[in-house]
């Protein structure tokens, strides 16, 4: 979905052959990715897949072994310019323990510039964060909220968020989702890493799936659902036609005790199966869509 309001600003995030080795470990292997301006892009993968490494590379916090990355056309190694365009929440939020939340936001706001104080206060209220205690005495979830407010309060063009809702309770997670949608509606781009499918499935336009440092898929969630195999149970009155050779049909299982019943798995269009069943007295046809969880497990 294009939420950029028709503005054509090119790719918000673009990487080419982006690669990071740590000794013998290939944390990220030749990533080619384009995230469009104004989209909410989910970056999914199991622990250790390379999500945080990618975000650190985009922030210029680590240097690539090979390859390039840009934020709205600005090379990420031009740190001063690139950081004017981004807000971020790191995976392991590290803040100054001796400062209060308010002081932290003031400090980070001075560095970033362009803080809208009214919007910052709205964020604090909506995330129900009292920023007056010292950071050292804040819970993990509340520290996460400080980082979220700091990332969002300047309304940056691009938000790079590494597991942004880690430690938030479900109510606050829902509020974060609202804030993320509002940001995208304003034309901001969100790049959201997560290993939790639920977190991205309601929010993201497209997702990239990373496994062991390699991008294995980039697709909309609807496309992913279509890629998955649908289970179909068919009951006919009489003899079943042969189904093994129907294009897209696999895992044909008969049902014990019922010679007219069969379970099959269909990938892609169900058309060929329906053609084969034309003229057969079908008494029951039940389909079961794959859950996104099942689809993701096939990638992981
Ligand atoms: N500083 C480092 N030194 C050595 N190896 C590292 C370093 N940082 C990351 N790695 C390795 O690179 C790989 C990718 O790690 P990364 O933190 O990017 O994964 P991730 O997808 O963010 O995982 P998680 O969901 O657990 O945060 C892992 O094998 C990790 O052990």
From TrEMBL:
Residues 13-237 form the ABC transporter domain. The keyword Ribosomal protein does not apply. GO terms for cellular component: plasma membrane. Gene3D superfamilies: P-loop containing nucleotide triphosphate hydrolases (3.40.50.300). InterPro entries: AAA+_ATPase (IPR003593), ABC_transporter-like_ATP-bd (IPR003439), ABC_transporter-like_CS (IPR017871), ABC_transporter_ATP-binding (IPR050763), DrrA1/2-like_C (IPR025302), P-loop_NTPase (IPR027417). Keywords: Antibiotic resistance, ATP-binding, Nucleotide-binding, Transport. Pfam families: ABC_tran, DrrA1-3_C. GO terms for biological process: response to antibiotic. One of its GO terms (molecular function) is ATP binding. Its main location: membrane. It is a peripheral membrane protein. Transmembrane segments: none annotated. PANTHER family: ABC TRANSPORTER ATP-BINDING PROTEIN, ABC TRANSPORTER ATP-BINDING PROTEIN NATA. This is ABC-2 type transport system ATP-binding protein. It comes from Georgenia muralis.
């Amino acid at each position: 979905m294009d939420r950029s309001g028709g503005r054509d600003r090119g790719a918000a995030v673009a990487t080419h052959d982006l690669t990071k080795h740590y000794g013998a470990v290939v944390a990220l292997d030749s990533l080619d990715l384009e995230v469009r301006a104004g989209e909410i892009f989910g970056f999914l993968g199991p622990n250790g897949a390379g999500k945080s490494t990618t975000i650190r590379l985009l922030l210029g916090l680590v240097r690539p072994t090979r390859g390039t990355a840009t934020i709205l056309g600005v090379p990420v190694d031009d740190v001063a310019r690139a950081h004017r365009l981004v807000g971020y929440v790191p995976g392991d939020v590290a803040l100054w323990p001796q400062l209060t939340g308010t002081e932290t936001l003031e400090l980070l706001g001075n560095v970033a510039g362009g803080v809208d104080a009214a919007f910052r206060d709205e964020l604090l209220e909506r995330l129900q964060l009292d920023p007056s205690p010292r950071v050292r005495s804040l819970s993990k979830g509340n520290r996460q909220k400080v980082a979220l407010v700091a990332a969002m309060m300047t309304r940056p063009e691009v938000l790079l968020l590494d597991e942004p809702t880690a430690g938030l309770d479900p109510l606050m997670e829902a509020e974060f989702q609202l804030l993320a949608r509002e940001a995208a509606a304003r034309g901001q781009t969100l790049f959201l890493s997560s290993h939790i499918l639920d977190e991205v499935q309601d929010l993201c336009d497209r997702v990239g799936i990373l496994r062991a440092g390699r991008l294995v898929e980039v697709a909309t969630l609807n496309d992913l659902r279509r890629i998955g195999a649908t289970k179909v149970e068919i009951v006919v009155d009489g003899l079943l036609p042969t189904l093994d050779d129907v294009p897209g049909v696999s895992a044909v299982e008969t049902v014990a005790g019922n010679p007219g019943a069969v379970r099959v798995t269909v990938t892609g269009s169900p058309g060929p199966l329906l053609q084969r069943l034309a003229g057969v007295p079908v008494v029951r046809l039940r389909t079961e869509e794959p859950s996104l969880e099942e689809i993701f497990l096939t990638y992981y």
